[in-house]
Amino acid sequence: MIDQIKKLGPGLLFAGAAIGVSHLVQSTKAGAEFGFGLIWALILCNFFKYPFFLFGTKYAFSTGETLLHGYKKIGDYVLYIYLLLSIVTIFTIQAAVTIVTAGLAVELFGFNNNIAIMASIILILCIIILTVGKYKLLDNFIKIVILILALSTLFAVGYATNNNVVELNFNQIFPDEVSGIIFLAAFMGWMPAPLDVSIWQSIWTKEKLNLNNKIKYKSALFDFNVGYISTVFLGLCFVALGAFVMFGSGQTFSNNGSEFANQLIKLYTANLGENVKIFISVAAFTTMLSTTITCLDASPRAMSQTLQLLNHKKISGYNTWILIISIVTMIIFVFFESEMGTLIKIATILSFITAPIYAIMNYSLVNSGYMPKKFKLSRTMKFYSISGIIFLTIFSIWYITLI
Predict the structure, then answer these.
(1) Contact, 348 vs 30, CB < 8 A?
(2) CATH number at residue 300
(3) pLDDT of 162-206, one tens digit each?
(4) How far from each other are the two terminal CA atoms of the chain, in whole angstroms?
(5) CB of 94 within 8 A of CB of 329?
(6) How many distinct structural domains can be found in the chain?
(7) Are 187 and 38 in contact (CB under 8 A)?
(8) For residue 332, what are the domain limits?
């Protein structure tokens, strides 16, 4: 088991990227507004998205290539689809997660109340970690962050459960108002993560194999499953925190990044007591820091590799894209910091609508002749995957026709 833990890496990076806005913001809000009524949505989207995230690990391990290399084999048009979808979302996503992280940093450390400056400091810190330490430092750093996150979150949930005086209601509901439907789409869009994170997963798996080519598929699968199950479990934890602490409080979250963070921490401490503030603060901050740094690592890797495969090598450097994403993110801080909620809503809904596209792309690749025979999909996995595509497509079409 100790040897297995040492080999963990890409799965925890997946968890680091996934456990962020979808958990701290969306899951907490789901619990606050609907109690435990949207557990069905959390379980269903995690269940049906699973194979498409798994394909990132499966394809990278079996071929030694990333999903992007596989897309290239299918045709350049697939890469251009990915490039277009990425350009639309990466800046908004990075800005949204960094603003939330900065707001929580202000609450936790308090040495600078200017959220734009704090966000810039966090970005610079992440850039140093990624450019100096590269994948190896990120791999080790994220293990510490996930451990702190898990322990502090479990403590907070345990404390909230012990102090809960409201009768629990697990009746499942389906929102019937437009605002509720929009939230449901946003909640499912990033739960556990946008499907393009499967591409990041394949990149991290390839990086891990470059460091240790003796890793067996069972170990890689164990690593991914640990990360995936962690995201599901912690998603349930944050729904529970929202339900225990905020459900029925009548409070609504601000769209402003710093005000949101202040509301979140104060609402927890008002209900659970000042003694638990440090645990809530640490859990929230580590949640968002892990997302910020993994997004800032993965997006440049994916953009760099995509442009190289499309022979646009002049603007395909990893460091170049870290700077581009960081600069655009800082510009967004200046002009849109007060609209953090809107940024998150746009990014999450886009992820919800585009999920079937990524699902079809990933399934088409691993079910093609480019997949080694040893790793071909079983009939059960094919049925599972097609069911997922149908589920994601129906929900997306349903949402588009309603809005």
Answers:
(1) no
(2) 1.20.1740.10
(3) 877 667 778 898 888 888 888 888 788 778 888 988 998 898 888
(4) 49
(5) yes
(6) 1
(7) yes
(8) 2-402
